[in-house]
Amino acid sequence: MNTIYSWHQETWRILRQDNASLGHALLLKGRQGVGKLVFARQLAKSLLCDHPSVGGEACRNCQGCGWFEQGGHPDFRLILPEAMAEKKGASAALANEENTGVETGAEMESPGTGEPGSPKSKRKPSKQIRITQIRDITEFINMSSHQNGHKVVLIYPAETMNPEAANALLKNLEEPPPRTLFILVTHRAQYLLPTIRSRCCQIAMPAPDPATATAWLKEQGVRDPATCLASTGYAPLAALEFNDVIYLERHQAFVSQISVPGKFNPCVLAEEMQKSDLPTLVIWLQKWCYDLMSFRTTGKIRYHLDMLAPIESLASRINPRALATFLRVLNETLRLAHHPLNVRLFLEEMLFSYVMSVAPQEQPR
Length: 365
Ligand SMILES: [Zn+2]
Known about the structure:
The protein folds into two domains: 6-115 and 123-204, 3-Layer(aba) Sandwich (Rossmann fold); 244-357, Zinc Finger, Delta Prime, domain 3, CATH 1.20.272. Helix 14 packs across helix 15 (308-315) and helix 14 (278-298) runs antiparallel to helix 16. Helix 7 links the parallel strand 3 and strand 4 (180-186). It has a five-stranded parallel sheet, sandwiched between helices. It is of the alpha/beta class. The chain is elongated, with a radius of gyration of 22 Å. The protein has helices at 9-15, 36-48, 63-69, 82-87, 90-95, 131-142, 163-174, 194-198, 210-219, 225-231, 236-242, 245-258, 266-273, 278-298, 308-315, 320-336, 343-357; strands at 25-29, 76-79, 151-155, 180-186, 201-204. The chain contains 17 helices and five strands. It binds zinc ion. Zinc ion binds next to helix 3. Zinc ion is lined by residues 49-51, 58-62, 64-65.
């Protein structure tokens, strides 16, 4: 199936009017979880297709489409950070166009993607795109194409290129090889070198309005689309991931415990949750605290639409300054969550700090 989401149809129409208008480098930017990677892959596939439709969609029948769908088109390169390729089962999983899981809720809003990896560590796969990967591209674009003359390099997420890699890419963008299209996909365009941004045609990828997103999620069989959508910051693909039963149950267990900070035991919860993905837990807590703060200051909830009563009750008793400080601390906590020394201790400390920061204000005697 050629998936072009309804909220991306107009962008598709504009870009696919003719190949020449694509230029040599595109920068697709926008919020995580709206389907930018799916779009970028469709675009690559259609360029490598021998018989695209009038609307520019890939035919799905030619040899090029076959290669692409099997994840092995010789004129296509997908560049991901090593850690992401490993986590997602590399190109095999990505080759499946129904697999939208790359843009997960777990990674949403995580500033961690811009952080330095651990170049010296041989055991941990890098979270950055490294210069060796970009050097491989240089070799690739200098070879002649196998199929219809086009070559496509897709870089995702582009902001994870480390400075050396970014500079190496810049050289390619400065002297663009003929009939080669670079597609850079980014959730945080501001982290890219200005010189890279200025050499790309920048496309703001739209997110659907909540009604469209809810209707789409319903079509995908999501039971409670509104809640899933809100829980993931209105990113439909992330909401689809969120609908996973195990994920939902775990999230519910976590939130229901932290919603009564006077009753739960941080040590017990840390033990229960220590097998979960740590950055995900930090993001859950961040969203929860965000809602407490938001309700306290504006009376509005963004993420936990189904938790109005406990949020109302807790928000009325907190000290907003203490919670604001904790929210800032959580940003740093999220960065550290990618490399914890001891998961359980890390969780205990985070949960104890949370309990302290939402403790009712002490009454002066
Ligand atoms: Zn085709």
